[in-house]
Amino acid sequence: MAKIKHNNILNTIISVMTSAKESGALHLYADGNYSNGRKLQIDGKELFNFGTTGYLGLEQDARLKQGAIKAIQAYGTEFPMSKSYVSHPLYRELESLVSKIYNNHYVVITKNSTLGHLGVIPSVVDDGDGVILDHQVHWSVQSAVQPLKLRSVPIEMIRHNHLNMLEEKIRQLQSRCNKIWYMADGMYSMFGDYAPINDLIALSKQYRQLYLYFDDVHGMSWKGTNGSGYIMSILKRLPEKVILISTLSKTFGASGAVMICKDKKVQERIKNFGGPLTFSIQLDPAAVGAAIASAKIHLSPEIYQLQQELSDRIAYMDQCIKTTTLPLITDNDSPIFYIGTGMPDTGFNLINRLIAKGFYTNLGIFPAVPIKNTGLRISISRHNLKEDIEHFVAVLSDEYPKALNDTGTSLDRVYSAFGRSLQQSEKFNKSATTLRVVTYNTIKEIPMDFWNKRVGHNSFYDWNGLKTLEEIFTREKTPEHQLQFFYCNVLDQNEKCILSTFFTYGLWKEDMIAPESVSDRIEKERESNPYFRTSYCLCMGSMVTEGKHLFLEKEHKEWKKAFDLLLEYVETLEKKLNPAYIILRDFEKEDTEIKQYLHKKGFIQVTMPEAAIYDSFGWKDRKEYMQSLSKRSRQHFRKDILAFEEDLIIEHKKSVSAEQLLRCYKLYQYVKKQNLGLNTFSYPFNLFTIMNESLQWEFILTYLNDENQILAGVMFCYKNETGIYTPAIIGMDYEYAYKYNIYRQLLFQTIQRANVLNYKRIDFGLTAGFEKRKLGAKIIEKCAYIQAKDNFPMESMEWLRTNE
């Protein structure tokens, strides 16, 4: 398979979020003339609010409101000066109060946590340092780290809370870094789980270079002495090697953020020159006035009463949920409860059902969670009365199975999406269907004519081609060349085939979807560790084949149900095989109907290289062929191909000698090594041996027309039984490739050979669309849809891409 084009992760996020917005789950507007925290109004409908991050409800406290009002009346709506020159008159009091909350540690007040990270991180991380990120650390931290790349600071990423991986990265960096900063959240905002604080402190004692940087925004106020947050509830006092960022908004009830450290020099360094903290406008008077009022509450015994009231509500929510079959993903004492729905369309459906019943909560969706780990992110606050909680859980428990049924899934499939087994015997019924799924483990079980009329009239995976591939890749010994094959047909009640396709399961290089610069770096590591950054994938088609791997009768009224059944079959394979990725390949990029359907089923779209086909036959000779080209293409043809005709000898052979076959394989390896844009594992030599023995394969050989007659290029071509000619693999000697335009010559010779053999179409496959277009090929934009077990491989590849 050709390399999937690099996709900026932002494009994927926008695409997924757009689907969520269109479903009515995101980007809503509250309306009404007031808000009391317990309820909010959307589109004129009053809803109980289970989506706030103001866990203690302080944003509605009369003392905070009065503090804001008095500050505005005294100082205006803003204090339009940088803090580097003059701080607001109330700032000194706020800084003093916040410092007391944190045992008189040194603090810096910031406009918000995002600007705080942008100001603090580049200030405390020196050029000789390194950074390791938990891959679920908040976006604002990851964004603030970006400028460090310009200073050549090495940045690594580990799986969420994976301390063994963290220790491995520390050992890799310790010989070249003065300090190694590990950056994580105290409490993570989606699942409500915690960082392993004590274990991290132990690591910082074991490794003198390890420093810890925590974002504790979601742990603030509802935990800890003086409401100092989750991390301080564990640490009690801040160690020298820890920097903490917390918030004055969310649970604190006001606005702004705060950096806390034990080293006065760090505080002074940030205050003297902290990027946006130096040049940006400071907190407005209302925010400072409200924050002072909140800080006074935090420093009073009342904070513990408020914490206990919230704790009672959290415990009651937990008690209510555990009387149901709702899939609670994380079980802890945080105010966040995550109820898994698995696929986005189930989440969209459930959100809309709850709104219709008078309840609002948040949807957890990609990129905050893996796309197949979509769910309800329910947050509990002091605003939620116990009767509200009980009513909400009852409604949620009633609507949840309806959402599953509406979207053709089950509780068992939801648990499976989160890597868990369903303990309860109850499973919700799926929608009834008259369709029938028939599956096979070998092409030999499927009638040749049936297959070739549907999937097999493409590329070199007609019935005989797949039989050959099975014989090769099910017998290979090396892990990267071992494939398992799976076939699936969906038939309607009249035995008409609506859908047909095949999948393979095998080892792939994770950087196949990364740019060449990333692959180049990873390949250096593979010189000593050949299976570095590799994962098992379940892929529609295979890494060897290219073309349209799915037959789908979209005119059939039940095509979506047929696709549902295919995905359910894929899930059964996923349970058995446990792949890191599921990849559905070779869809037309402009098929918005498929795109919307698959986004809701938990797949994200990635762009593939352009596909090319040639079907403009009917010309009798070269002159007529040239006339079929555009004027500009004819000029290219004369300059790039005809000009070298006398320098080359072209041969077509059904088989070659053993010596020639070795030379051909070496030419293939030259191309493979040269082009990291096609960064799959090399094909085994046995594949080429079988090609040489098969009547359906032939070789287009290009020799230098001189006394040595060196074989400089070869095209390995497959003759599909349904009339398709496929130049599947190419080999070239780069000592001559550019001088004689070997690649372009082989493309033309392929067209000429197919015409002589009376084939109706050439499947040129992917990549090099510009070159193929010049020879008359039609270009088709292609895409794939990927579902990953978690976001780590994608996000870590993005960091490698940008960390050049």
From TrEMBL:
MF-aspect GO terms: transaminase activity
Co-factor requirement: pyridoxal 5'-phosphate
Domain Aminotransferase class I/classII large: from-to ranges: 46-393
Coiled-coil regions, chain positions: none
Alphabetical list of InterPro entries matching this protein: Acyl_CoA_acyltransferase, Aminotransferase_I/II_large, AON_synthase_class-II, PyrdxlP-dep_Trfase, PyrdxlP-dep_Trfase_major, PyrdxlP-dep_Trfase_small
Keywords, sorted A to Z: Aminotransferase, Transferase
Xref: Pfam families: Aminotran_1_2
Protein name: Aminotransferase class I/II-fold pyridoxal phosphate-dependent enzyme
Organism: Zunongwangia endophytica
